[in-house]
C-alpha cells in the first residue's frame, strides 16, 4: 500500500500530518477532552506510554504556556517537545514512580493519562495479558501520584471481563465512564476509561494493586466482597467527538491536487526496531 493510499484510507492519519501531530492518536485525546473537559485547572500532568508524543503535544498546546508541568514517559526515547519533560523509562518498573515524583517536587498530579500498548505478538491471550499488566502499572502509578479528586484516563480493550475492571475502578474513583472517540475505529475493541474524582476508600494502600495475591486492607475487604456480591458494574459508554467529525472507518477523497502529495511523518521514529537492520544493510553486513 502506497503512502498516499493510506492518507486516503485513514483521514485522521492524513489530518495528523497536515496539522503537525506526531500521531493520529492526538485526535482521540482531543475528542475525549471535548466530552470530559479533562484539562480544566490542570497544573501537573503525567502522560504514560507517550511516544512518539502526540498526546503530549495536545497537552502542551491545550494548557496555557508555563501553567503546567507535563511529564511524558515511554520505553522509547521521545524527541524533544516544547514545554514537556520527557523520561525514558518503563512504567512497570518501581523506580519510575520515584523519578516522576522527583520531577513534580513531591507534589501530586491532577491527571494521569496512558495510551499504553505493548508490541503485539499475535498470540491473543498473551497480548491481552500484557495489555492488562500495562494498565495495572498505569493505574498503580496513578494511585500513587494523583491528588484526591484527580483524573485517570487510559486505553483499554473491551474484552470479556471488562465489567470486573469497572467494578475495581469504582472502588477508587467517583465516576468511571467508558468512552469511544470517533477517531478510534469502530471495528477495534479499543476504548478509553475516563475515571474522575480519585477517592480511595478508607484504608486503601496503593501498594495493594501490585501485591501478588493481594490481601486487601481490612476496611476494604468487606467493601470488595460486597461489591462482588452485587451485580457487576456497568460503566456508561459514551461516543465522543462531533457527529460531523470524520468517521475513522470510512474512506475519503482528499482535495484534488493536494491529495496526490504524500506528507512526511511529523516525527520519524527515534528508535525503530528495524534500525539495526538498516545500519547493517548500509554497512553490507546484513545476512
Ligand atoms: C500507542 S503508543 C502511544 C502513542 C502516544 N499516546 C502518542 O499519542 O503519540 C504506545 C506506547 O506504549 C509504549 N509502551 C509499551 N510498554 C511500555 C512500558 N512498559 N513502559 C513505557 N512505555 C511503554 C510503547 O513504547 C509505545 O510508544
UniProtKB/TrEMBL annotation:
Keyword RNA-binding: no
Catalysis: reaction(s): cytidine(32)/guanosine(34) in tRNA + 2 S-adenosyl-L-methionine = 2'-O-methylcytidine(32)/2'-O-methylguanosine(34) in tRNA + 2 S-adenosyl-L-homocysteine + 2 H(+)
SUPFAM superfamilies: S-adenosyl-L-methionine-dependent methyltransferases (SSF53335)
Biased composition (Basic and acidic residues): 277-287
Binding site for S-adenosyl-L-methionine: 53, 55, 74, 90, 115
UniProt keyword Plastid present: no
Record's keyword terms, sorted: Cytoplasm, Methyltransferase, S-adenosyl-L-methionine, Transferase, tRNA processing
Catalytic residues of the enzyme: 155
This protein's GO CC annotations: cytoplasm
Cell compartment(s), UniProt: Cytoplasm
Gene3D superfamilies registered for this protein in UniProt: Vaccinia Virus protein VP39 (3.40.50.150)
Enzyme Commission code(s) on record: 2.1.1.205
InterPro entries reported in the protein's UniProt record: RNA_methyltr_E_TRM7, RNA_methyltr_RlmE, RNA_MeTrfase_FtsJ_dom, rRNA-MeTfrase_E, SAM-dependent_MTases_sf
Domain Ribosomal RNA methyltransferase FtsJ: 21-198
GO biological process, one term: tRNA nucleoside ribose methylation
Catalytic EC class: transferase
Gene Ontology MF: a single term: tRNA (guanosine(34)-2'-O)-methyltransferase activity
Chain intervals for the UniProt region annotation (Disordered): 264-287
PANTHER family, A to Z: RIBOSOMAL RNA METHYLTRANSFERASE, TRNA (CYTIDINE(32)_GUANOSINE(34)-2'-O)-METHYLTRANSFERASE-RELATED
UniProt similarity note: Belongs to the class I-like SAM-binding methyltransferase superfamily. RNA methyltransferase RlmE family. TRM7 subfamily.
Protein task: Methylates the 2'-O-ribose of nucleotides at positions 32 and 34 of the tRNA anticodon loop of substrate tRNAs.
Protein name stated in the entry: Putative tRNA (cytidine(32)/guanosine(34)-2'-O)-methyltransferase
Organism: Lipomyces starkeyi NRRL Y-11557
Amino acid at each position: 500500500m502506497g503512502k498516499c493510499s493510506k492518507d486516503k484510507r485513514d483521514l485522521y492519519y492524513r489530518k495528523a500530518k497536515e496539522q503537525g501531530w506526531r500521531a493520529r492518536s492526538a485526535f482521540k485525546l482531543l475528542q475525549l477532552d471535548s466530552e470530559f473537559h479533562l484539562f480544566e485547572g490542570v497544573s501537573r500532568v503525567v502522560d504514560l506510554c507517550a511516544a512518539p508524543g502526540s498526546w503530549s503535544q495536545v497537552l502542551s498546546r491545550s494548557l496555557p504556556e508555563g501553567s503546567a508541568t507535563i511529564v511524558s514517559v515511554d520505553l522509547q526515547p521521545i524527541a524533544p517537545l516544547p514545554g514537556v519533560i520527557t523520561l525514558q523509562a518503563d512504567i512497570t518498573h518501581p523506580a519510575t514512580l520515584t523519578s516522576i515524583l522527583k520531577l513534580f517536587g513531591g507534589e501530586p498530579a491532577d491527571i494521569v493519562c496512558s495510551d499504553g500498548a505493548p508490541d503485539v505478538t499475535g498470540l491473543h491471550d498473551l497480548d491481552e495479558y500484557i495489555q492488562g499488566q500495562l494498565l495495572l502499572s498505569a493505574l498503580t502509578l496513578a494511585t500513587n501520584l494523583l491528588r484526591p479528586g484527580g483524573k485517570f484516563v487510559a486505553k483499554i480493550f473491551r474484552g470479556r471481563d471488562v465489567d470486573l475492571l469497572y467494578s475495581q475502578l469504582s472502588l477508587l474513583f467517583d465516576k468511571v465512564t467508558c468512552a469511544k472517540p470517533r477517531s478510534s475505529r469502530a471495528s477495534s475493541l479499543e476504548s478509553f476509561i475516563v475515571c474522575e474524582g480519585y477517592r480511595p476508600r478508607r484504608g486503601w494502600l496503593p501498594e495493594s494493586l501490585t501485591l501478588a495475591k493481594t490481601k486487601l486492607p481490612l476496611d476494604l475487604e468487606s467493601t470488595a466482597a460486597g461489591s462482588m456480591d452485587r451485580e457487576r458494574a456497568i460503566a456508561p459508554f459514551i461516543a465522543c467527538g462531533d457527529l460531523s467529525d470524520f468517521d475513522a472507518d470510512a474512506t475519503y477523497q482528499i482535495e484534488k491536487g493536494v491529495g496526490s502529495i504524500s506528507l512526511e511523518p511529523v516525527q520519524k521514529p527515534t528508535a525503530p526496531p528495524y534500525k539495526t537492520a538498516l545500519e547493517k544493510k548500509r554497512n553490507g553486513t546484513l545476512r
